[in-house]
Amino acid sequence: MTASDTAIFDPAVETRPAAEQRARDAARYPKQIAYLFERSPFYRHKLEAAGFRNAEAVGGLDAIASLPFTDKDELRRSQAEQPPFGAHLAAAPERILRIYSTSGTTGVPCYIAITPRDLHLWTEISARSYVATGVRRGRRVVSTYNLGPFVAGAAGETMNKIGCTHIPVGTGNTERLIGAVQRLGADVIMATPSYAVHLIDWCRARGIATETLGVRQIAVAGEPGGGDPVIRRRIEDAFRCKVNEAMGIGDVSISLWGECEEQGGMHFGGRDFVHVELIDPASGAPLPLEDGATGEAVYSALEREAMPLLRFRSRDHVVVNTKPCSCGRTAPRVRCIGRTDDMLIVRGVNVFPSAVREVVSAFAPRVSGQILVRPQAPGVKQDPPLPVSVELARGTSSDDALADAIREKLRSVLVVQTRVDLVPWGSLQRSEYKSKLVER
Ligand SMILES: [Zn+2]
Fold first, then answer.
1. What's the pTM?
2. What is the pLDDT along the chain (440 residues), one digit of tens a residue?
3. Contacts for 313-316 with beta carbons within 8 Å, 24 or more apart?
4. For residue 244, how far is its CA from the centre of ligand 1 (angstroms)?
């Protein structure tokens, strides 16, 4: 029996008391800071510019909030100025084992290099996260991620480490995916929540009864919808399965968080390798990582060779749960409620399009669950009412009372004034991969 036969991949790490973990992270952190000064021209300049002459001046983990943030645009600029890797490459080029890229919105990909040690850390972290979501030895797991040039490509190595039976089918190959469930007995599906919802419609259209397929678990990741109770219930009811979510970020680790069977949010899986902080996305002020807190997750590598990042802004807005968990894991849990990038401020109130979708979804079966927020002004700040297109369910006709009820519910739950436009079924664009919630 190995660790991966159990429901916890690395019990020694994952059930460690939080105070002990903090002490270990605090001991590791100065070594990473010294490494950045020595090996990363990007951070040497950045920290010097912020008034820190050397690693000693930076101080310990308790003082991390005095350091500047790193954001994705800076990494892109660094790579444009010093192609191909940027000044944040800290390992000798011959030590690079693999180069991944992220799909750049500007058309130029952003490169992520890893050493053998980095790959080991990524797969350790991700194995903790995936095992929590039900991807375990003894199970047949069909994955739908495009492994291609993206960081998710290392998911395959994570599955090797876990020792589950992995059936990769890629994105958009629904026939092969359902075939793997029917003919190979796959009982776990890894997909984005949008894709899981698409599977329900796809099966219905072909007369396949999703509830009899024998799927026990759908592990969702890639977008925040997996935490949306309405979307989750819809998938769970259709497949008679459990939905658990995972979340990662390409520049930090394939997966970083994984939700256990208690379904109270995703446990942090990066212990010993990544330090997580919570900040106010508007002011950048640090927030205590305590029960019920909400803010943006910020990550610092504690042990990374090729491209270590310090205080990297994830743009993921999370709610923290630190209540004891029956699974035995002691790391804090989070639910991602949206992307800071998508956040709008309407008369001083933060509004996440994913939260708008969550409220609207409660009106199913009269609505399809697809929405599109249409900001009228550039930038984050919007004047009320905020226009929201809500797609009706198939065969449902427009109805002023329904629009009023949705508008009233959005006002009472999210404290935002909206203008709700009901649009016919099929008129909002769908994606098998990730849903677009804001029209820019
Ligand atoms: Zn748990």
1. 0.87
2. 444 445 899 999 999 999 999 999 999 999 999 999 999 999 999 999 999 999 999 999 999 999 999 999 999 999 999 999 999 999 999 999 999 987 655 567 899 999 999 999 999 999 999 999 999 999 999 998 776 777 777 888 999 999 999 999 988 889 999 999 999 999 999 998 989 999 999 999 999 999 999 999 999 998 777 888 888 999 999 999 999 999 999 899 999 999 999 999 999 999 999 999 999 988 899 999 999 999 999 999 999 999 999 999 999 999 999 999 999 999 999 999 888 778 888 988 888 888 898 899 889 889 988 899 999 988 888 999 999 999 999 888 888 999 999 999 999 999 999 999 999 998 887 765 566 788 87
3. 313/69, 313/70, 313/71, 313/72, 313/279, 313/340, 314/249, 314/252, 315/72, 315/281, 315/339, 315/340, 315/341, 316/224, 316/247, 316/249, 316/340
4. 11
Residues 6+ positions from 77 with CB-CB distance below 8 Å: none
Placement of tokens 């677009």 in the chain = 436
Compute, in angstroms, the gap from residue 21 CA to the centroid of ligand 1: 17
Q: How much distance in Å is there from the Cα of 279 to the middle of ligand 1?
A: 24
For residue 105, give both structure tokens: 């919105």
Cα-to-centroid distance, 257 and ligand 1 (Å)? 11
Q: How far is ligand 1, taken at its centre, from the CA of residue 329, in Å? A: 5
Ligand 1 centroid – CA 164 distance (Å): 20
Q: How far is the CA of 11 from the centre of ligand 1 (A)?
A: 12
Closest CA to 72 of 35, 33, 49, 105: 105
Q: 225: helix, coil or strand?
A: helix
Those residues whose beta carbon sits under 5 angstroms from the ion ligand 1 are: 260, 262, 325, 327, 329
Cα-to-centroid distance, 326 and ligand 1 (Å):
6
Residue 160 alpha carbon to ligand 1 centre in Å:
23
CB distance 202 to 176 below 8 Å: no
The amino acid at residue 53 is R
Q: Which residues contact 84 (CB under 8 A, 6 or more apart)?
A: 111
302 near 118, Cβ under 8 Å?
no
CA distance 182 to 187: 10
